[in-house]
Design brief:
By secondary structure, the chain is an all-alpha fold. The chain has seven helices and no strands. α3 packs across α4 (41-63) and α3 (22-35) runs parallel beside α5. The chain crosses the membrane at residues 18-35, 42-59, 79-101, 113-132, 138-157.
Length: 167
């Protein structure tokens, strides 16, 4: 079986996927707040247990102190707080976006295809603006597709035409 080898200073850290499970909680909370959904006691209990499990993992991480740092000399420094904040922001934004989109579809009665095109256009414009602001000169010098290799193109094709679909 394939194994992942981490420096011992990183081996005790929970993967971000553990914390990202809080997206379920944020989605449920936004659903209650924005859509007026009512949750059963069992659902609230399940959400509380999910939160408690993630909190226990994070509390253990906060208490643990690595014996030594075995990161490569050229590795960027790592901050537990920044990583946790990034995952929390991702949970909040993802949960909000999903519930808001559902609310938008339920209240306006518009076509889902039209909404997807509108959201895609805004997302594309914001992404292009961010790219120009951050890497505009490099993109102008090297081209937009610089660095694309067959693996990247395979991902693009799969995302566009959905060669691998979840049903």
């Amino acid at each position: 079986t394939p194994r992942c080898h981490l420096p011992s200073s990183l081996a005790h850290r929970p993967p971000p996927q553990v914390t990202y499970q809080l997206k379920i909680l944020t989605t449920a909370l936004f659903s209650v707040l924005l859509l007026g959904t009512s949750l059963s006691r069992l659902q609230w209990l399940s959400l509380a247990l999910l939160f408690a499990g993630v909190a226990l993992v994070q509390a253990e991480q906060a208490r643990a102190t690595p014996a030594s740092t075995e990161l490569a000399p050229d590795s960027p420094s790592q901050s537990y707080a920044v990583g946790l904040a990034a995952v929390a922001a991702s949970c909040l934004s993802s949960g909000f976006a999903g519930v808001y989109f559902e609310r938008l579809l339920k209240t306006t009665g518009g076509s889902i295809w039209v909404r997807n095109v509108q959201l895609g256009a805004v997302g594309t414009a914001v992404g292009l603006a961010a790219m120009v602001a951050a890497e505009g000169s490099a993109v102008a010098a090297l081209g937009f597709f610089y660095g694309y290799n067959p693996a990247v193109w395979a991902v693009v094709v799969n995302q566009r035409w959905g060669l691998v679909r979840a049903h």
